[in-house]
Design a protein that fits this description.
Helix content: 55-70%
Strand content: under 5%
Bound molecules: zinc ion
Structural class: mainly alpha
Largest sheet: none
Number of helices: 6
Oligomer: single chain
CATH class: Mainly Alpha
CATH architecture: Up-down Bundle
Radius of gyration: 15 Å
Order of helices and strands: HHHHHH
Shape: elongated
Length: 104
C-alpha cells in the first residue's frame, strides 16, 4: 500500500476515534467544548486524551506515530528490523510499527 493510501486510512480512523469525544460529551449530557476539536486536530493534549477510553488513547497514539512515519517517509518499514511490512499486514493493521516477525 502506498503511504498516501495509508495516510488516508489512518486519518479516517483518527477522525472516527476523535468522533468518540462527541459521543462521550453526549453521554455526559455536557457539550464538548468547541476548542477540543481544534486542540485534537493539532497535537493530542492530555486533557483531550483523558476524555477517550484507554484503548482509544493507545490506538490514537499508534495512529499519530504511524502518521509521523508517513511524513518521515518511513511508513511500511518495521521500526525494529527495517524490513518492509507486508501489504496484507498493513491492510489489517495500518498503524503497526512492526513486521510480522518482530511483532511476535
Ligand atoms: Zn521487523
Amino acid at each position: 500500500m502506498t503511504p498516501e493510501t495509508a495516510k488516508n486510512i489512518l486519518l479516517a480512523r483518527r477522525d472516527e476515534l476523535l468522533g468518540n469525544l462527541d459521543r462521550i460529551g453526549d453521554e455526559l449530557d455536557e457539550p464538548v467544548p468547541k476548542d477540543w476539536e481544534d486542540a485534537a486536530s493539532e497535537r493530542q493534549g492530555d486533557e483531550v486524551l483523558s476524555a477517550l477510553g484507554h484503548s482509544d488513547q493507545t490506538e490514537l497514539r499508534r495512529i499519530d506515530a504511524a502518521l509521523a512515519r508517513v511524513e518521515a517517509g518511513e511508513y511500511g518499514h518495521c521500526v525494529t528490523c527495517g524490513q518492509e511490512i507486508a501489504d496484507k499486514r498493513l491492510e489489517l493493521l495500518p498503524d503497526t510499527p512492526f513486521c510480522g516477525n518482530c511483532a511476535r
